[in-house]
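Listing S7. Sequence submitted for prediction.
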Amino acid sequence: MFDETVSAVEQVIAPPAAPEVLVEDAGKSAQNLWWDDREEALWWTDVAGDCLYRLNLKTRIQSAIYEGPTVGAFIPQEDGSWLLFREKDIALLDFDRHDQVVPLFENVRMDGDRFNEAIADINGRVLVGTVRHGRPNGAGIYRLETSGTLAKVLGGTGQSNGMAWNEKGDSLYWACGTTRTICRCRYDVKKGALTNRQVFHECEVDEGTPTGLAVDAEGTIWSARGDAGVILKIAGNRRLMGQVTFPAKHVTSLAFGGADHRTVFAAAITAEGQSKIFMLQSPSAGRPLHRARIEGPKG
């Protein structure tokens, strides 16, 4: 019998459910998972293979949607198009256009070697991180306004990883790969400003490097880890609640999806350098993510 004084998550995760393989060959370095409710499909980018993939969950058909300059981050728009944060530009993947990929903002100036991970707020503006190899303070988080203005809003990292909102959308959880911490920042929804950055969770040596992030309906933070092959579950009061172990060295990204948002998808890289997509069931549903509302080119 369940103890009603204990949360549903705590009652079910011990022992944790074993993940099953959904995609055997997801590319060289699968990252940035995104569940698309409209198509019931899972998207991800292979940053080492320069491809963007889509998996129709009903048919299990995997398609290479895009091939070209590296897509470090991407996010869907309300109008059905997709924003691609590439090496030197931000492009629009629009299935209604003949050429499909249309440069939106060219020769983008940012601190970092490439973009990494993106999330939209309730107003449709986008926060997108960057990574800078060999420079512990050479990257950060940028804000892309709906009008197209790009500005840096947070620094002090060489590897900006996953991001997730709290229930109200006025706090951002953010994984810093450089300091191996998960931080929590206040977020001004009207201005798009990040302030009051505080360490929420500091990784122990055996916990690996925090990569992807997601938050479920109970406020539990799901933290994917590189160098450890696990997803850790951390309560809103910072208490470690459990983990899921994967047969892979690096877990790069995770996303809630499926019809009831209780399926957890996770991308991982094996010791042999092969990416796989796993899935498992969660007792608590994930929170649906916002879509972007960035204005595209006129005409």
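Caption to Listing S7: primary sequence and predicted structure tokens for the chain studied. The domain at 21-281 is CATH 2.120.10.30 (Neuraminidase). Helices lie at 8-12.
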